[in-house]
């Protein structure tokens, strides 16, 4: 499984890269803020909502600490998606937040 540090993610965000971030946390966790532009798909909804994703795009998955997003990465990799897990999740992320 590919992984990325929060520093690597922040560098990509600072460079205005076109990123596809998927936040797999629960609704109450997302209320505390998300990475700007992140799409919210709770972990339990990933199998049912995988058709919303495009296999030609790369995705970065994030959760609170990195474990749930790793599980989502494993599942999506098996389905043929290009996914990267954010190490340490939102607990390690100290960049800008977006509130929805």
From TrEMBL:
Pfam families with a match to the protein in the record: Rhodanese
Cited InterPro entries: GlpE_sulfurtransferase, Rhodanese-like_dom, Rhodanese-like_dom_sf
CDD domains xref list: RHOD
Occurrences of domain Rhodanese (ranges): 15-99
Matches recorded under Gene3D superfamilies: Rhodanese-like domain
Name of the protein this chain belongs to: Rhodanese domain protein
């Amino acid at each position: 499984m590919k992984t990325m540090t929060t520093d690597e993610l922040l560098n990509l965000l600072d460079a205005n890269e076109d990123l596809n971030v998927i936040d797999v946390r629960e609704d109450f966790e997302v209320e505390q803020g998300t990475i700007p532009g992140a799409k919210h798909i709770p972990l339990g909804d990933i199998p049912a909502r995988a058709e919303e994703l495009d296999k030609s795009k790369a995705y970065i998955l994030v959760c609170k600490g990195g474990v749930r997003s790793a599980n989502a990465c494993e599942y999506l990799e098996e389905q043929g998606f290009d996914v990267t897990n954010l190490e340490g999740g939102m607990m390690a992320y100290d960049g800008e937040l977006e509130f929805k």
